[in-house]
Amino acid sequence: MPQGQNARSLTVTIMLFVAILLPLGATSLVIGTGNDWITMGFGNNTDDGHSFSVSAHAAFDTGLSLLFDLDGYTDQRETAMRYSTLSLSLSYPFSFHPHPNLALTLSPLGGVHLSGDLGLQALQNLLHRILGRDEVFLTEAYDGVRAMVTLGANAQVSLTMGSHRLGARVAATTVPEWESRLDLSLLYQVEEMLTVGVGYLARFDHDHHPVRTLSVAQSQGLYLFSSYHSPLLNTAWAIWPETGFSWGSFGIDVLAFTQPKRFAKADLSTVSGIYYDRNGYQMRVSGLLYRGFLLQVHYSNGPTEKGAPLRRNIGAWSVGWQWEPFSASAFLRPSISLFAGLKRYNLIEEYTTRIIEAILPAIGIEAGVGLGKKDAWIVGDSAYHFRLAVALHYTFESGSLVASDPQWERIARPLTLLFGLVLQIDHDLSTE
Q1: Is the C or the N end of the chain the one with fewer CB within 10 Å?
Q2: Quick one: DSSP state of residue 187?
Q3: Are 106 and 153 in contact (CB under 8 A)?
């Protein structure tokens, strides 16, 4: 059997093994994916780098964790090659509490790491076709698959103050024939739901194939990160400011529906959605809503048109107010949102040459209609509901953004009309 078929067979076998093993006795099972187009408006998205990911994380009553990661890496800029990795590891936390508000945790880790040709090109291009993106055909950098041992440990100290937590973490992992990592970070947590922090990642490459240069160089050094955890949905995001590389992920806990319903009132809400403008460009939104006060991010990236050498990176960060006059029990709930902030326009050519980089003031208005009662769909301590939305954004001085691309004129126009679907998650923090 050819090497490529062997690799694909091995990948499928391991994935089936994990799919069977994980639900056995697990209290949570988060299955997700990640990509570098999740920029939150900051990243430059200058190359695919770490371009594909499937992950699974199972937690058990004993504290044991099982982690599975299947990742694809592509280098379209230098080597025109790709490779893939698959990691399967176990970790167990040993916790100590020298003070009621202070916790020390040490989590050893061990597992197996596979690298090489895992047959991900077809899977990545299937996803690209679904998303309407260009397919990527590259030469495999490695023949066959190499299996290696993974060893590591994670140490964390946490200080809890009511619903808030401050922490410091040190994580070290090594795959002796592949790569070692040392990760230092400081974090702030709210009710174990929202985490923000800053870290420093040092990567030591033990395999010096040229195709690995891009991913190693992009994601090392100082980085900023955030993560969000609800009973059903989990998201994470990180950016390395020096390189402009960003990475985000989202996952669903497939065992969440077994949790008892504990939601009674909304203390804090998160907002996420997908919008499209009249030209068919997709824009994504993430935000926080607290007693009507709105903090949100809109972002969009990708080629100006299919196959074009120019890539756009648009981000808008705003604050505002959302007014919803009808009660939470109404089946249809109209709402109006007003917001203002800053909008970033970034345009690059062939992944490397910056043509436009500007931040301009912007304002907006959004009309929406909530579908169904707010508490009709409850999972654990959170209530989920959807809203249809129409938004109009106005950017001041956008006429100064000039590029020799007819599509760019449609992207950088002053007025942008958007149509979208929004998911709002209301959190009852009193149940923590």
Answers
A1: N
A2: E
A3: yes
Taking a C-beta distance cutoff of 8 angstroms, is the pair 178, 416 a contact?
no
Q: How far, in whole angstroms, is CA 134 from its chain's centroid? A: 21
Q: What residues have CB less than 8 Å from 297, skipping those under 6 apart?
A: 40, 41, 285, 286, 287, 315, 316, 317, 318
Distance CA 310, CA 82 (A): 22
Write out the E strands in 141-232: 145-161, 164-175, 179-190, 194-205, 221-229
Give the pLDDT score at 286.
94
Among 9-18, 207-216, 269-278, 290-299, where is mean pLDDT lowest? Answer: 9-18
Exposure b/e, 336-373, CB count within 10 A at least 16 = b: ebebebebbbbbbeeeeeebbeeebebbbebebebeee
> How far apart are the two ends of the chain, measured CA to CA in Å?
54
Taking CA atoms, 408 is separated from 1, 164, 218, 279, 283, in Å, by: 49, 44, 27, 11, 15
Angle in degrees, CA 160, 166, 171, rounded to 5: 120
Position 204: which residue type? F
Which 3-state string (H, E, C) describes 4-62? HHHHHHHHHHHHHHHHHHCCCCEEEEEEEEEECCCCCCCCCCCCCEEEEEEEEEEEECC
Pairing status of strand 81-91 against strand 139-140: parallel
What is the architecture, at CATH level 2, of domain 3-258? Answer: Beta Barrel (2.40)
CA distance 98 to 42: 40
Residue 214 parent element (H or E): helix 213-218
Is 102 a residue whose pLDDT tops 50? Answer: yes
20, two tokens: 């069977």
CA gap 428, 328 in Å, rounded: 14
Round to whole Å and give the CA distance between 351 and 44: 9
**Residues forming CATH 2.40.128.140 domain(s) in the chain:** 3-258
Looking at the predicted structure, is the pLDDT value of residue 36 above 90?
Answer: no
Domain range 268-431, CATH class = mainly beta
| Cβ partners under 8 Å of residue 300, min gap 6 | 281, 282, 283, 284, 312, 313, 314, 315
CATH 2.40.160.20 location in the chain: 268-431
Decide which of 55 and 3 is more confident.
55
196 φ/ψ sector (left φ>0, alpha ψ -120 to 50, else beta): beta
DSSP 3: H
